[in-house]
Structure formats: C-alpha cells, structure tokens
Amino acid sequence: MDEVMTVADAASFGRGNRALYGSPPSQNPFPHNLPIFSAFLAFALAQFLKVFTNWYKEKRWDSKRMISSGGMPSSHSATVTALAVAIGLEEGVGAPAFAIAVVLACVVMYDASGVRLHAGRQAELLNQIVCEFPPEHPLSTVRPLRELLGHTPIQVVAGGVLGCVVAYLMRSTS
User: Fold this and answer.
1) pTM (2 d.p.)
2) Which class for 157: exposed (0-12), middle (13-18), buried (19 or more C-beta within 10 A)?
C-alpha cells in the first residue's frame, strides 16, 4: 500500500521533523544544514585563532599553527560543541541526534584533555631522552616526536565556548 503525504506532513519538513521523513530527495541537503556549517566554521575559526593566541603567548607569528593540533582554543572541542548546539537548536534537545552529538562531544573533549595531552607530554620526555644519546647511538638521528597533541582543560573549555557562540550566531543569521 502506498503512503500518502498530507499537507501537515509536507509542512513539517521545514520545522526540523526530518527524523520521520528525511530530507526531501529533490533538495540539496547542504544549503540548509546548520549543524554541519556551524561545525566547519567553528573548526576553521579555532584554527585561525591559534595563530593569534600563539603570537600572544610566544611573541612570534607561526602560520603552521593553522594546520596543527593542540593549542588554544581546541578546534576539536569547538567543532563537536558547535555540532551539538546546532543540532539542539534545530531539532530540539529531546532529539536522538542531539543525544548522539552530546555524547560524541564529551568523548572528543575528554580525549583532547586527557589521552592526547598526556601522549604529548610523554613525547616531550622521550624527545629529551633521545637528545641526550651520544651521536653514535642508533636512535640519536630519529626524527623528534610531535609534542603538541592535546589540550589543557582551559583550551578545551575555550573551544567549547567558541563552538557554542558560532552555532548560536549561525542560527540567528539563518
């Protein structure tokens, strides 16, 4: 038996009721996808801001900060927070997509300030140990490990705040 779409069903497409029906097949999903645009914008803005926070801290410009991990603010936190907030604004905080996004955000932010931060600190210690090897040691010529991998809790919080602001401003301009 074929399903019939009523006028009320058709009107609900514009109000975020995509969980039942999905996006209309004839439309491109990207022009109206606030969550993905908010997430990408928050990521790009966080990466861009790292150049300035690095200059403030070290008093030198380093454009490589725009494509590296670690530093202030956390682009990972900004991305997942913007995604979760935008989904919450679009679909409502009771939507399953919002719950998934919040859990994802918590895992990513915990990982950024926990596992990755400590891996970076271990890399720093290992690099110091390798530097003390005599030149004839086989590991003395090994390329140093990347040390700036994770984030301090304040960097994670700053990224989260940035993500919230971006999602809210994107929502208010659309």
Assistant:
1) 0.68
2) middle
